[in-house]
Amino acid sequence: MELNQRIKAEVEKIPLVDTHEHTMPEAERSQYAVDFGYLFAHYNTSDLVSAGMPPRLMEAARLPMHHYRVAYIKRRRLRRVIPEPEREDMSLEERWQAMEPFWEAMRNTAYAKMTLIAIKDIFGIDDLSRDTFLKLSQAIADSRRPGWYRYVMKEKANIALSIIDVQSTEVDRELFAPVMTLDHFIDVRSRQELGYLEAEAGTAIHSLDSLVKAMQTVLERYLDSGVVAIKNVLAYVRTLEYDKVSRHEAELAFNRLTQHLGEGPSFFEAKPLQDYMMHQVIQAVVEAGLPLQIHTGLQEGNENIITNANPTHLINLFIEYREAKFDLFHGGYPYVQEWATLAKNFANVYADLCWVHIISPEVGRRLLHELIETVPANKIMAFGGDSITVEMAYAHARMARQVVTRVLSEKVTEGYLGDDEAIALARRILRDNPAALFKLSV
Ligand SMILES: [Zn+2]
Known about the structure:
By secondary structure, the protein is an alpha/beta fold. It folds into two domains: 34-143, no CATH class; 154-437, TIM Barrel, CATH 3.20.20.140. Helices cover 52% and strands 7% of the residues. It contains 19 helices and nine strands. The chain has helices spanning 5-13, 26-32, 44-50, 55-61, 63-76, 92-106, 110-123, 133-142, 148-156, 191-201, 208-224, 247-257, 267-288, 315-320, 336-345, 356-359, 361-374, 390-413, 419-437; strands at residues 16-21, 159-164, 176-178, 180-181, 230-232, 292-294, 326-328, 349-352, 380-381. β7, α15 and β8 (349-352) form a beta-alpha-beta unit. α3 (44-50) packs across α6 (92-106), α7 packs across α18 and α17 (361-374) crosses α18. The protein is globular. The structure holds zinc ion.
């Protein structure tokens, strides 16, 4: 397929507004970027496990990033468990040997392709194999120097600004704009967890009303520190179906929960309270004038319940909260057409392709073709790196530009778009739309 060279050159030039990253704080990088394990923060490790690598062996093989992930999950109080590494005393050679057969098995996937792009373009090494893992490990260790993030994100990736979800608002504002979550005020299941919320909000929580008030207090604090959106990732732990429940039902569930110390009541007992709190969060977020980013579709890792994350579960919220701005993540993959249909149907739904191009560039291309034909251009956002490391964000940005270039070239060849129209569209979906939605000055 011939690429339109003018479109290619223009797409390369666009400084991206990246809707979603999880970038590790640069100050912490020197602790973890010590060898090839650093490039196995997430995603590619899911395919290692899918290829048959025992999870605990995988954790041992990526040891530096195992330690980072444990700290990260703990800091974010996510309801996810990282398995203990099988051993902590493996040599670099043993760690590579443990990974090698599974890496060889997964090298066809887009996660592996992204990894290889990062290795080649950032570290100048052509492959990841038994011949290169030592050299790569050295190159990664040598990259621990000040200014590395600016070099990779600005100079290499040409990303103007990334919206970052690391559950901290203390981020380098030259590179990042923060989002925070209120999920912990929704997914609450025990008296002990209410205690964490009390500590965070600085108020006692003994009633449903005081739980709502505490959530609002925390949101106000986020606003004061300049968050540009609120993010919801609860599709990892529950269904996206948030029923409209009465105050009474929510209060009964709250009262039951206050009597549980440990794990608390089952999800089904807690659900009315969670559903009620989701509605309260949306109302507060609307009041604050912020968009709500919602994880839909594929969950990172293995053995997740994909049906929980079907974006069509959210339809009642789209109907009820017309004044809200719902930024629907990840193409809803694999519910891509349902997801596109929602963005077509509802004025308050935005189509965000973050993560999609590394799940499958082919899906990214098909989906972008469809979006261009179905969804008004002001609601399409074509790139979010969704990475823990800047190197993977770079590789993902490169893949996203390739997808956008090829789709727009095809649309011009088909006679669907003119050259200038295609270039204007590229600017909108890679930069102007997210800049407008999140009110960013870039
Ligand atoms: Zn993410």
